[in-house]
Description:
Elements: H1 6-14, E1 17-20, E2 23-26, H2 43-47, H3 51-58, E3 66-68, E4 81-85, E5 88-95, E6 98-104, E7 110-119, E8 124-130, E9 136-138, E10 141-144, E11 154-157, H4 179-182, H5 184-187, E12 195-196, E13 201-202, H6 213-217, H7 221-230, E14 256-258, E15 265-267, H8 276-282, E16 288-290, E17 305-307, H9 328-331, H10 335-339, H11 343-346, E18 347-348, E19 353-354, H12 368-371, H13 374-377, H14 388-392, E20 395-398, E21 402-405, H15 414-420, H16 425-429, H17 435-446, H18 457-464, H19 470-479, H20 485-494, H21 504-510, H22 516-526, H23 531-538, H24 547-556, H25 570-586, H26 591-603, H27 607-620, H28 625-637, H29 641-654, H30 659-671, H31 675-688, H32 693-705, H33 709-722, H34 727-739, H35 743-756, H36 761-774
Antiparallel strand pairs: 1-2, 3-7, 4-5, 5-6, 6-7, 7-8, 8-9, 8-10, 10-11, 12-13, 14-15, 16-17, 18-19, 20-21
Helix pairs in contact: 15-17, 18-19, 19-20, 20-22, 21-22, 22-24, 24-25, 25-26, 26-27, 26-28, 27-28, 28-29, 28-30, 29-30, 30-31, 31-32, 32-33, 32-34, 33-34, 34-35, 35-36
Amino acid sequence: MVLTTVAALAGALALLLVTEGGFVLPNAFRSSDVAPALAFVGSETCAGCHQAETALWKGSQHKHAMQHATGASVLGNFDDASFDYFGVHSRFLRKDNRFFVETDGPDGKLATFEVKYTFGVDPLQQYLIEFPDGRIQALSIAWDSRPKDQGGQRWFHLYPDEEIKHDDVLHWTKLNQNWNFMCAECHSTGVRKNYDATNDRFQTTWAEISVGCEACHGKGSDHVKWAQSQRSWFGKDNDPRRGLAVLLNERDGVTWHPDPKTGNPQRSVAPAMTRREVETCGLCHARRGQFSEDWVPGQPLSDTHTVSLLARGLYHADGQMRDEVYNYGPFKQSKMFAAGVTCSDCHDPHAAKLRAPGDGVCLQCHASDKYEVASHNRHEGVTPAVTCASCHMPVSTYMVVDKRHDHSLRVPRPDLSVKLGSPNACNNCHTDKSAQWAADAIERWHGPVRKGFQNYAEAFQASWTDRPDAAMLLAVVAASPTAPAIARASALSELHSRVSPTNIELARKGLADPDPMVRVAALDMLDGLPGDRIWPLVSPRLSDPSRGVRIRAVSVLADVPLANQAVSDRAAFEQASAEFIAAQHLNADRPEARSTLGNFYTRRRLTADAESEYRAALRLSPHYAPAAINLADLYRQLGRDGDGETVLRTAITSSGQDAGLHHALGLTLTRQKRPSDALNEFRTASELEPDRSRYAYVYAVALHSSDRITESIDVLKKNLARHPDDRETLSALVTFNRDSGNIGAALEYAEQLSRLAPNDRELNRLTDDLRARLK
């Protein structure tokens, strides 16, 4: 394990200060020296000039995001403390100012591991353990650093309600608790992962162990050179950016004043579409995946990262956070963001604390005589007092004890809770009351029109439940000029399975959107359509300014053979292909990246390379079902279904509860003309994942093919009860009932299907025929 010494060197240099014309500079950057371009200099170097900012930063959680484990940094009880978790008795020990934990290791047996680093400080602290192959793993037993009267000062497990054994990917020694991939970029500065795929080892480095000045401002060497020139009697540098990668000055000269029409605060200067500060904070405060280490502060996050959209499982349909999505995605949905509010309007960027206590941070802009009154909050005299955040930034708890505010800054919508089941701030407190009770109260107080700023809940709910009007509702969101860009992007992405001649223009407009997140989502929408057909539409994006757009475009067009590509586009295609491959190589330690690259090679007809990537993914994680399914499908294309069966059965031994594996095995066995074995796999898949309509449908078809007609129709009926608008299920019910002589039932299902597809001529003829047969 190599830990970069740049920060240590910079710190040593900072101690050797000389004074040039009253300006304090490190010896390393005296006028007679030439500093290397774009190098990290370390926060101690920055402190030589920026003393006030440094004082604030030293007390921040950023400063303590990661530290060497010492008596000063370790908060947990290592005085032979113990913790029991599903039969595993762990102990925490201290010896000669070193810290150890005795717990279950990668083989499930008790062993002793040295804690090398601390991770975080409040409200919990985790501990990192280094392995000989360069992996650093985050222990799942954490220290609750809250005061004892708040339930803290104790050891606890991050998965308290489920047993995580040593062979689970969530075990602390396994893939999904790996610091090098999961954590390093956001808890340290200037991280380079340096994964050696050939030997499956890491040699990860950093410029500074914690989140230092250059994590947000970029490499500082040119800024130091600029600063030096300002005190020089010759050769002043007039660089308007002062040698910085970005000027985070979007608040400079900005004032807020009441809008004469609404009375609401209005920014004196219109905000930019993509804002430098929000994108910079988003590096760590976003749910995202890295595909390049060439991130530059202030640039759109989508240039180097895949940002999670408002996807099922991550967000509620109205955009409220559900899983751990952090602040970037929620905030970009907010009316505050649209109006031009930026992170440091509310948070001091160096102390990482609110600029004012309590409601004071909101009252910087919002008039107290309008909002801090009973006529607005309706909770006068309540103890504890209801704050702005109570209603507009409700809290969710992650990692057992970490309470986080939803930064989408929305009005409470209990009426949506009644209609769609989404949560609301009112019932977070009034748990003994119904959502309808809360909705009625809001209507009495504020009237029936209370849509707020985020008005896309029904569209996403319709998509996630496969309602027939989903495409129409999503199209409205995607085309809305007032909808947040992240919502428009999410709507475009959701339209992927619903592309039609009536909405293809939405993708065309999305590809020209100024926000790269929307352009990427427009490509998501088009993915899967024949590449030759969409080449004229997508190929210009192969040269897009954003790397994220370029690599998404080339993945969409991957199956277009070279001979079918426009000659003028080939160079751009090859360059984007190289970037796409490099992006996957950066994450070659992850089965997802290896499988993604395998898919790309499959579409490029590089079958040997594809097979190698899929197998590499399964070596990294035998649990990773998509790699096994994709490899089996590759073998199908190569006429090697026997090998595909072997791959799937091997994967099932590791992930027997994965429905997708059983479904894929059923398809493989069907092709091998083994219907009885296939039927068992289809049944298992439908039982493991009963809400997956496709699995139930295929199981029913298999039953019907085995002459088990009644059972088949029963499975379809149950599936239809869960998915009342599923066209495959309805179509099968029409056919199976008609063929079995139950014309009345067939007609009933045909009429239901006709309501979903009123312009389907063939279906209309079938319905007319069924009616005629009943006469």
